[in-house]
Automatic annotation (TrEMBL):
Gene3D superfamilies: Oxidoreductase, molybdopterin-binding domain. It comes from the Bacteria. Residues 103-256 form the Oxidoreductase molybdopterin-binding domain. It comes from Siculibacillus lacustris. This is Protein-methionine-sulfoxide reductase catalytic subunit MsrP. Pfam families: Oxidored_molyb (PF00174).
């Protein structure tokens, strides 16, 4: 673990809260040894992101209207400080994540919809409109980045399926393959990683499915080959390496809210005035320059999303 002084003087426990939250449970369960052993099991020459057939489709035209003007985070900074707990509890999971075979990659769309389907990712990409948008990303751990994602509106996938009237939520599920993702052997966690949005959130213009970053195919550490981007919410909502989308009537249980409902809720909308139970959310550290900037309500995207929550005042919207 890297130890360095933070300009705003938080303790180490406060700057890596998600990982520590998991680690505490792992140690309680006495699993530390088993996971290290599993890390080298069952690897077989997978396809790498470098061979990604998407390479010919990029770069895509930029959506200037939905791009922010903040200075871009250097690619190397964003690409080397990642949360992807399937591959490790530290921020340095690049090498481990390369074990994930990203082709072939099937995507299932099912549940309460008129046209459930299963599709290969490259066939899906022929049916959607790729664009680039520069987005802010704010982790609940109080670091942030500004990166150009390439992808398509989640609303496009929703429209292909045609949700039924009873469908209220979209549940999204990450791959499950402990042979390549050793931390998925830790059975007391609710793997696979699951996230969810209301249908109104999922069809908002900001909800995005990214297949690339910095004009290139998505590297594994950022969630190749397909990851959610919800820039007005804390980063843990943006589930990586998705394989399944299900239309459901009831609010789905999600990975983090199952582990710690009082710290990581379903809504997770960014709000500097609502502290996490263990630390302030007022400021954030930009990766790369390490600048401290003030966190903004809805991560600065209120114009697009504040209206989604007008009638939900009784919910814990900011945790
Ligand atoms: N499947 C999966 N998706 C995930 C995570 C994870 O551990 N597993 N971590 C989340 C968290 S906490 C954050 S902040 C972002 C980090 O995205 P990045 O590494 O591309 O910056 O991914 C989110 N998506
Ligand atoms: Mo995060």
């Amino acid at each position: 673990m890297i130890r360095r002084r933070r300009s705003w003087n938080l303790s180490e426990a406060e700057v890596t809260p998600e990982a520590l939250f998991l680690d505490r449970r792992r140690l309680l369960a006495g699993l530390a040894g088993g996971i290290a052993g599993a890390a080298f099991a069952g690897l077989s020459g997978p396809a790498r992101a470098a061979e990604d057939p998407l390479a010919g489709l990029l770069p895509a035209a930029r959506n200037a209207g939905l791009s922010v003007a903040d200075p871009l985070t250097p690619e190397a900074a964003a690409g080397s400080y990642n949360n992807f707990y399937e591959f490790g509890f530290s921020k340095s999971i690049v090498a481990a994540s390369k074990k994930l075979p990203v082709r072939p990659w099937r995507i299932v769309v099912d549940g309460l919809c008129d046209t459930p389907f299963e599709i290969d990712i490259d066939d899906l990409l022929k049916k959607v409109t790729l664009e680039e948008r520069i987005c802010r990303h704010r982790c609940v751990e109080a670091w942030s980045m500004v990166v150009p994602w390439t992808g398509f509106k989640l609303a496009e996938l929703v429209a292909m399926a045609g949700p039924k009237a009873e469908a209220k939520y979209l549940r999204m599920e990450t791959f499950l393959n402990p042979k390549v993702a050793p931390y998925q052997s830790a059975a007391q966690y609710p793997w696979p990683y699951v996230e969810g949005l209301t249908l109104a959130e999922a069809t908002n213009e900001l909800a995005f499915l990214a297949v690339g970053i910095y004009g290139k195919p998505m590297p594994t550490q950022h969630g190749a080959p397909l990851r959610l981007v919800t820039p007005w919410k804390y980063g843990f909502k943006s589930a990586k390496s998705l394989v399944k989308f299900s239309f459901v009537a009831k609010r789905p249980e999600t990975f983090w809210s199952a582990l710690g409902p009082s710290e990581y809720g379903f809504w997770a909308n960014v709000n500097p005035d609502v502290a996490h139970p263990r630390w302030s959310q007022k400021m954030e550290r930009r990766l790369g320059p390490e600048d401290m900037v003030a966190t903004r309500i809805w991560n600065g995207y209120g114009e697009q999303v504040a209206g989604l929550y007008k009638d939900l005042a009784r919910e814990k919207l900011y945790m």
